[in-house]
Write a structure and sequence with these properties.
With about 230 residues, the chain is α+β, with helices and mostly antiparallel strands. The protein contains 8 helices and 10 strands. The radius of gyration is 19 Å and the shape is globular.
Length: about 230
């Protein structure tokens, strides 16, 4: 068991141009579509997405919090979701400083939009590879995740505790936590993976409408059924 954590710093990014073009409602044969494909080729060469994670023990629990290694996290939903577990996988994953620096050079609004989409695609690709690595190394079942600030139940300010739990892991993959609790590079994600037979997705408890990042429908009765005291 690697208690110090594992850095995945040689991840590849191969943009699925057809999928991204469809997502952005671009049309083949148009100059802007050709431009996007051109940028995607450069992004593939420039990008070095990375991730870091570790295995951490759940030391104790109360009604609305839990202690993971040496950090106490205040979230009833997180506590309930991990109620039958003794281990979790704190993580941070990023599109990488290399791709971010490349994207920051653009001034044209359309180029900036395309670069942003490519950074997000690189992040999602790295996230998938991160989960694959955890499942392969630790023989886990289905992985769910929670992220500080994704729900009112778990404050964004608990990012400090999460980064404390990760130790120097975030800096090893080039991620910084700013005083605003925002991460740099901006297309980075941090949180805790855990095994759960019935997959949990933050969106199930989020009532926000017209969210472009929504991954599951809002379940208005879920909190009362599973999390209310």
């Amino acid at each position: 068991m690697n208690m110090e954590g594992i850095a995945l710093d040689k991840l590849e990014f191969k943009p699925d141009c057809d999928l991204l073009i469809k997502k952005m409602h671009l049309k083949e044969g148009r100059p802007e579509t050709d431009r996007f494909r051109e940028m995607a080729l450069v992004a593939q060469e420039v990008s070095k997405p990375k991730a870091f994670y570790k295995i951490s023990r759940i030391m104790s629990r109360s009604q609305n919090s839990m202690v993971v290694d040496n950090q106490e996290f205040e979230s009833r939903i997180l506590r309930v979701n991990t109620d039958k577990l003794n281990r979790t996988f704190p993580f941070v994953v990023t599109c990488g400083t290399e791709l971010t620096s490349w994207a920051d050079e653009f001034t044209d609004m359309l180029d900036k939009l395309f670069a942003d989409e490519l950074k997000m695609a690189a992040l999602r690709s790295a996230m998938n590879k991160l989960q694959e690595d955890i499942r392969a190394r630790y023989n886990t079942g289905e992985l769910s995740q929670m992220n500080p600030g994704s729900l009112d139940d778990w404050s964004i300010y608990e990012q400090k505790k999460l980064f404390g739990l990760l130790g120097n892991g975030a800096s090893r993959v080039g991620v910084k936590l700013l005083s605003s609790m925002v991460m740099y590079p901006d297309k980075s994600e941090s949180g805790i993976f855990f095994e759960k037979e019935k997959k949990f997705i933050n969106c199930q408890l989020c009532p926000a409408e017209k969210c472009p990042s929504r991954q599951a429908d809002f379940d208005s009765g879920l909190y009362d059924r599973e999390y209310r005291l």
